[in-house]
């Protein structure tokens, strides 16, 4: 009679199971209490481990999907309050009755640099802030991650890059970014005078970090603002954003 350690090697063969495990098939000649206990403990432990892994994995997916689910176009824009580089607090609700552009920002991201390096973003900011549009640039990267900004850093960037936003806001906790499902930089949102989202997505139609692609691309933000300001419906209200991922603070 073989002992328990010999049984798996000599007498088992693969059996598919719903958990994806290989069960041990033992000839009736080798069925002993010791062997049955061995099988029971192994299957029980592996099944429990798999259940734990699947539960944790499923929960993480559900949390991530829920946390970064962007509000749909046409819905009310979530309110938020954030400090700017000078410590002044800005709330979306204080700009009620105005068009507002939200721009997620990371100064180290090559896709962001694409639009700032040659002045494309600054030109867009100035064009529409001169028309009364509020432009809020938001940094939602967690402290210590790539592209995160301190108030001092933000002030230097705004000066050296000659930006024309209404305010550069610091969202170190990531609350505003998560509320809008912002996953990339740049990630763009346009809110109308009624406080509803009329556009969300990419800044333009060419998802590359190459500045030479800007002249031949469609600028979705400019098109949406031009159309809406002139009383027309936005022809392309939603696109897929592109760029670097937002590095949110771990909860």
* N-to-C CA distance: 56 Å
Give the number of domains: 2
- Residues in β-strands, percent: 5-15%
CATH topology-level name of the largest domain: Glutaredoxin
Instruction: Output mean pLDDT.
Output: 84
CATH architecture of the largest domain: 3-Layer(aba) Sandwich
- Quaternary state of this entry equals single chain
What structural class is derived from the secondary structure elements?
A: alpha/beta
Gyration radius, to the nearest Å? 27 Å
What is the string of helix and strand elements? Answer: HHEEEHHEHEHEEEHE
Uncertain segments are 4-30, 54-66
Q: Could you give the order of strands across the largest sheet?
A: 5-4-3-7-8
What is the helix fraction of residues, given as a range?
Answer: 25-40%
The CATH superfamily of the largest domain is known as Glutaredoxin
Can you characterise this structure?
There is one protein chain. The protein is of the alpha/beta class. The chain has 2 domains: 7-67, no CATH class; 81-245, Glutaredoxin (3-Layer(aba) Sandwich). It is 33% helix and 14% strand. The chain has 7 helices and 9 strands. It has helices at 7-11, 33-67, 110-117, 120-129, 151-160, 175-179, 220-229; strands spanning 81-83, 89-91, 100-104, 134-139, 167-170, 184-185, 188-191, 197-201, 244-245. The strands form 3 sheets. A 5-stranded mixed sheet has the order 5-4-3-7-8. β1 and β2 form a beta hairpin. The radius of gyration is 27 Å and the shape is globular. Residues 4-30 and 54-66 have low confidence and may be disordered.
């Amino acid at each position: 009679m073989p002992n328990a350690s010999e049984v798996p090697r000599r007498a088992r063969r693969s059996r598919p199971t719903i958990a994806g495990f290989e069960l041990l098939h033992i000839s009736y000649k080798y069925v002993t209490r010791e062997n049955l206990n061995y099988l029971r403990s192994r299957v029980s432990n592996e099944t429990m481990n798999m259940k734990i892994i699947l539960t944790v994995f499923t929960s993480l997916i559900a949390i991530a999907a829920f946390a970064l689910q962007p509000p749909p176009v046409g819905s009310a824009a979530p309110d938020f309050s954030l400090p700017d580089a000078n410590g002044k607090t800005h709330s979306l609700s204080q700009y009620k009755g105005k068009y507002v552009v939200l721009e997620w920002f990371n100064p180290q991201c090559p896709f962001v640099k694409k639009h700032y390096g040659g002045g494309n973003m600054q030109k867009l900011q100035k064009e529409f802030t001169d028309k009364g549009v509020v432009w809020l640039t938001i940094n939602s990267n967690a402290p210590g991650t790539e592209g995160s900004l301190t108030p001092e850093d933000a002030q230097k960037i705004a000066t050296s890059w000659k930006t024309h936003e209404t305010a550069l806001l610091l969202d170190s906790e990531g609350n505003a970014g998560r509320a809008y499902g912002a996953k990339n930089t740049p990630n763009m949102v346009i809110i109308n005078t009624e406080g509803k989202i009329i556009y969300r997505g990419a800044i333009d139609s060419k998802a590359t970090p190459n500045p030479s692609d800007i002249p031949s691309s469609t600028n979705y933000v400019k098109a949406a603002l031009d159309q809406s300001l002139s009383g027309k419906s936005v022809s392309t209200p939603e696109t897929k954003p592109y760029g670097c991922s937002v590095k949110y603070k771990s909860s």
